Amino acid sequence: MTRTLTVCPYCGVGCTFYLVSDKGRLVGVEPSTTHPVSRGGLCVKGWNAYAFVHHPDRLTTPLIRRDGQLRPASWDEALNLVVERLQAVQAKHGKDAVMFASSAKATNEENYLLMKLARAVFGTNNIDHCARLCHSSTVTGLAETFGSGAMTNSISCFDQTDVILVIGSNTTEQHPLIGSRILNAVRGGTRLIVADNRRIRLARHAELHLRHKNGSDVALLNGIMHVIIAEGLADREFIAGRTENYDALAESVADWTPERTAAATGLTADEIVAAARLYAGAERAMVVFSMGITQHSHGVDNVRCIAALAMLTGNVGRPGTGVNPLRGQNNVQGGCDMGALPDLYSGYQKVADPRLRDKFAHAWGVSSLPAEPGLPLTRAMDAASEGRLHGMFIMGENPMLSDPDQGHARKVLENLELLIVQDIFLTETAAVADIVLPAACFAEKEGTFTNTERRIQRLYKAVEPPGKARADWEIICDIAERAGYNGMRYTSPAEIMAEAASLTPIYGGIAYQRLAAHGLQWPCPDKEHPGTPIMHLDRFTRGLGHFSPVVHRLPAELPDAEFPFVLTTGRTYFHWHTGSMTRRTHLLAREEPHSFIELHPDDAARLGIRHRDMVLVSSRRGEVRTEARVTDMVIAGVLFMPFHFVEGAANALTNNVLDPESSIPEFKVCAVRVEKMP
User: Fold this and answer.
1) What does each C-alpha distance from 587 to 47, 105, 200, 313, 357 come to in angstroms?
2) What is the spatial distance between Cα 14 and Cα 9, in angstroms, rounded to a whole number?
């Protein structure tokens, strides 16, 4: 048998393991015992990460829609048609009539190339990826306050902290190896605060569990900061030497007394005071958050408050401290880093800056690049429905299930003049495409992923792709060549990374030969630099950290007489994203086979609903049938539903209202009703 080192294709923790293959087929995995992140451990998804690779549903040949049906075609036929149709749409409607969607499941090199294809070959900044649905508010909020939108510390810092505040993160289920770090830290004496109105597993181990109302995070954090300032617990030396605009922050939280905060959050005043004293009283405290914070119509404001809390107490730039957003997908950090964003090149360099446009244009051998920022992915759907967008190229994403207001997303995708999907399975989105291109998965190609702590790691090819499937980077390069562009003639992903690193200061020292052991953490500006485990040590990336005062705003849609419940969505331990991989993994599908919704026993009794009854859940946008799980994991008046299941799609219900700054949808709060089915 052969053992091939690779990086897990699921969450952003970045665990590594060996794929075990026998005669060209994968038969299992073995964790890496030396890796600094996983340390010989894996979660249930990691242990089963090989199981979907050889699934009979894998796409093996290009498909072209003829007479309403997707039919097999040759690569020449399919790729020539891709170029011909994209160019025809642009000739008819303009350069910005097409949109490119990159992928957090693709490698850094592939995200860089699709960004380059969109801008250098097709002349549009309409390039984005699923960070728009999970952490775009993190990037916006932390870039403003710290100067960098990434996790400030390393996963190893969980072993060095005194207090951990987990807010909006179901860590043990969504980032299990980090969840285990937190549990081990608690066993060793670290004190834990969990702010989440679900009784998640991590809450059982918390000294303080704050079950605040959905959408009241700004009020909670402002109230905690009020107590810290009022009781003299702020780090005055850090504030004076490392930050700016403190007086404005202090003024903005002055009225957020524990009593006012309690009224806004549903907590008690004593709980708010206790949380403030526990966090601020620690020598080293860290904040951990994820999509429970970011996926709101005020997600950027939530992130601003978290950054302010950390600066207020001097908990930035030291081991065991920091603001630590946990990335949801294996390479969502890398997708952002590589410029798969409508307003940024790789390394967060602004497309609006003429000097940067000239730099990239010169490197790419084109006369000019578009100056106006492109469409965020979430706004592309509305642009298409309004007749401003006519074609989409989607690589490795499934917006039919992942986008809010599924009915709207389906209508838009089905009515596009041109839809091209490049993926490993015939997803719900691929099924309505005009052209489908079969891609290689993580086990069948080389490249790099960047994990949640900014660690750039190599993956190695273990087996051949099925049938005629090809690596995403090879397909993109072939499209560029057929479009008449000769600037994508690479022989390997290493060559692509060398180009990306030469244009991207934070990746300047990244080269494949330096990544062989356990990778490097950016910023890594040159070939001698050892990487950066902890950011903002002596100064923030922007110079001084900036306090950004925030006004508490309610969610866009609240319960009423017609729709009396709050619905919030998320993931389960056994499944991931839209289920295209985990639901084709036997053990995972067996453990969590179908959709469900959690409701509190008091609500269930009032509605005559028993555990495992089938219920109809409705919102202003749609309805789904699913199984009821009666549990006190949720508070009365709140329902929780995972979004993995096409037959019970939570996103048929969710609201597509967007944060005005980051364009992230409000997945975490919408109004619904629930009824027992006869």
Assistant:
1) 10, 22, 23, 45, 49
2) 8
Query: Model pTM greater than 0.90?
Result: yes
pLDDT in tens, 561-604: 999 999 999 989 998 888 889 988 999 999 998 999 999 999 99
Structure tokens at 167: 């807010």
The model's pLDDT over 425-450, given as tens digits with 9 standing for 90+, comes to 999 999 999 999 999 999 999 999 99
The contacts of residue 614 (CB under 8 Å, 6+ apart) are 625, 626, 627, 628, 676, 677
Question: Which residues on neighbouring strands pair with residue 350, listed in sequence order?
Answer: 344
For 350-355, the CB contacts below 8 A with 24+ separation are 351/119, 351/125
* DSSP run (H or E) holding 350: strand 349-350
Alpha carbon distances (Å) from 295 to 132, 450, 461, 662 = 10, 22, 35, 10
- What CATH fold (topology level) applies to the domain 565-676? Barwin-like endoglucanases (2.40.40)
The domain segmentation of the chain, as residue ranges, is: 63-133+330-449+468-485, 152-326, 565-676
Q: Which CATH superfamily is domain 152-326 in?
A: Dimethylsulfoxide Reductase, domain 2 (3.40.228.10)
Q: Which residues contact 170 (CB under 8 A, 6 or more apart)?
A: 196, 198, 200, 201, 202, 290, 292, 570, 571
Find residue 29's DSSP bridge partners.
19
Residue 374 CB neighbours (<10 A): 23
CATH of domain 63-133+330-449+468-485: 3.40.50.740
For the stretch 139-177, pLDDT in tens is: 999 999 999 999 999 999 999 999 999 999 999 999 999
Taking each helix axis from N to C end, the angle separating 299-312 and 217-230, rounded to the nearest 10 degrees, works out to 20
Q: Are 256 and 223 in contact (CB under 8 A)?
A: yes
State the average pLDDT over residues 230-253.
Answer: 97
Structural tokens at position 430: 């691929």
Q: Look at phi and psi of residue 119 and say left if phi exceeds 0, alpha if psi is from -120 to 50, else beta.
A: alpha
Q: Which tokens is 449 given? A: 């992923």
Cα separation of 85 and 93, whole Å? 12
For 32-46, the pLDDT digits (tens) are 999 998 899 999 999
- DSSP assignment, residue 22? E
